[in-house]
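Field: COMPLEX_INPUT
Field: COMPONENT_COUNT = two
Field: RESIDUE_TOTAL = 823
Field: MODE = joint
Values follow.
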Amino acid sequence: MFEALTDRLTDVFQRIGRKGRLTEQDVDEALREVRRALLEADVNYRVVKDFIAAVREQAIGEDVLRSLTPAQQVISIVHKELVRVLGSERVPLTWASQPPTVILLVGLQGSGKTTHVAKLGHHLRGEGRQPLLVAADIYRPAAVEQLRTLGRQHDLPVYDEGTQAKPVEIVKHAIKLARERRLDPVIVDTAGRLQIDERMMQELEEIKAAVRPSEILLVADAMTGQEAVSVAEEFHRRLQLTGLILTKMDGDARGGAALSIRSVVGVPIKFIGTGERVDALEPFYPERLATRILGMGDVLSLIEKAQQQISQEESERLQEKVLTGTFNLEDFLNQLQQIKRMGPLTQLLEMLPGVGQALRQQQVQISDDEYKHIEAIILSMTPEERRHPDIINFSRRRRIARGSGTSMAEVNQLLSQFKQMQRVMAQLGDMAGVGRRRGGLRGLLGGGNPLAGLGDGGLDALMSQGMVPGGMPPGPSARHPTAQRPKPKAGKKAKKHKKKRH
Amino acid sequence: MIFSRFFRRQTQPEPKIEAGLRKSRRGIFRDIAALFERSEIDEELYEDLEALLIQADLGVETTVALLDNLRQRVRREGIKDPAEAREALRDEMVALLEEATRNRKVKIYQRGVPFVTLVVGVNGTGKTTTIAKLARYHQDQGRSVMLVAGDTFRAAAIDQLKVWGERLGVPVISHTPGADPGAVVFDGMQAAFNRGVDILLIDTAGRLHTKYNLMEELKKVRRVIQRHVPEAPQEVLLVIDATTGQNGLVQARMFTEAAGVTDIAIAKLDGTAKGGIAFAIARELGTPISYVGTGEKVTDLAEFDPETYVDALFFGDDEEA
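Field: COMPLEX_OUTPUT
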């Protein structure tokens, strides 16, 4: 996965040696690995070929930024190109000037059309619309019943005429009803069909001609392989698709099919399906899919974000402070705020390879409240107290707790944790004196299972593990695995948020 | 005729569908034939073959391995004629699948003990349809069949199985939606014994292999089955969609871990998908492919045979090539 691609790229560049500029040969060797990663992610062979050619052109002669290794640099270029192809903007649904707007969901059997008709209805109702769902799949046994059931469960009106009527007629009648009852949009579930099934494709063309839908969305399974291209091409040729819904993204498929479809057909990806529940529908973020296709967490954005937030000087100053043991609560607060500026914690964690998926799997929710509390506590201190936490006595603690709206226990906890953190930093300083350790990305992740430390220690562990911006990779920043301090609190919280499907 | 061999078990496939199938395949047959219409075996041929196999979803690793074998053979046997290389490639592909087929357990149908098939897979691969086809398949062999509606989660999944049950005249054991799958399976096992049926086909809810709880649920279902018949389920069938890409390998691995998959069915082979993931699974896991679904009709299920599979999907008949 991520490890594989970066490791392989790192190997390639180590063989070549570090240079200031990427030569043709470097790039070719690196791109062979990228090509393989893309193919393993099910990106279509032809698409990969064109894609690699485009990246090659961009990469050759590029200066190697001081901040990135050549391997990271190549990934960064690949990543940017992926995002470009996937479409950097969100394209909203098109609404008919004359309501109701008709949305047609089409696709192969088993891609998730019926489920997504319900999800889309639920989603649009959340935006204040009053959708009507239409059961026009008269072929699959109990498909109509399935949509009826989903409608009943989620309180969405469903129009159906059983399985004897013609789909074109059903849709026409549904639109008439929607007009009368002022329901908008009309979301149509069609039968799954093979793109080469002439009779069934004609049926779709008839429906299209009869009701002129504003949106014809292809529902595609994220696990689809090389065939995604022929399927999408044929649906597009016959129906002129307006967009794509990529389903089953809650699995571990890389979703290369999306890139293939996108680059061959050119229609935007409008939504992704991330689970079986009716609310598991999300807008599409090209960044995330790009990293997923490459099989890595969004480390690049993380690095970029960190770089945007922290100047080189400041990071050096901080490092000095850490190493000399003069790091105080004021610096700590600074860092907290910098991390916060980078985005919500869950989102940051999602960017770490492996972590995002692990989080989704466990359905862990991490709240940003911890931040807020810590911040409030420090902000309730006087500058003097922040610089010299040792002077905080009982009455000061009581004042801080009251001022920050927290409890004495929380203030105590923060102070004792900070003290521990200082101790660890001092140790690091000593070690750094002996010989600075190679930290980098690995150190940030703490090797092995990144969640292991996280589940136990939550925010603290993360920060003490070196999420402090001063230690952003790469560079000879000092970090040590013992900096993890287990704290059961976050673990319990995680469990509480675990949800069962049934 | 290639497709009558492909539908070995079947009496007479509707000519319309057969024509459609052949049409959908004609492209690749022609492509492959064209590849070997050159005067010598050169590097370009290997590159083109790589493109072709990867586009059939065999995956990079399996493709590279197959082509390595081919290169070795060409060198060892001093093959000069591209047509001979074509035969060699075909042999290698068949051999790869055959090795997995050898792992197939002999199906023993005993009187008085139901033969239990547990059907598993991710969402939307065609489990329920495959069950209907399997039911018909066993009926044709003169066995009595019963279905268990173990998918209590997806809306109307139970109804879907019942519709098939009615069409086929096969009893369906079911509970209400949302019930515990273990409980339905328990009842199904009991009913199978009481009524002395030969074959019990158990439908399960589609689940992504990454969902820990749902995979654990499968283990529980297995335990419930084993309470009645220790050697059951005699068959754990993983249904894989022919259009599935490299994720199919992960699916096979995870479902084997959780549910002890014994056989694989490739569904929806009537499209243009080549089902190349079967090669990757055979090579990496050695799980035998036992059935292929080739259409929407209830009779569109064939027993898997490596040679026919390779010919039907890649090489075509000699006259067609």
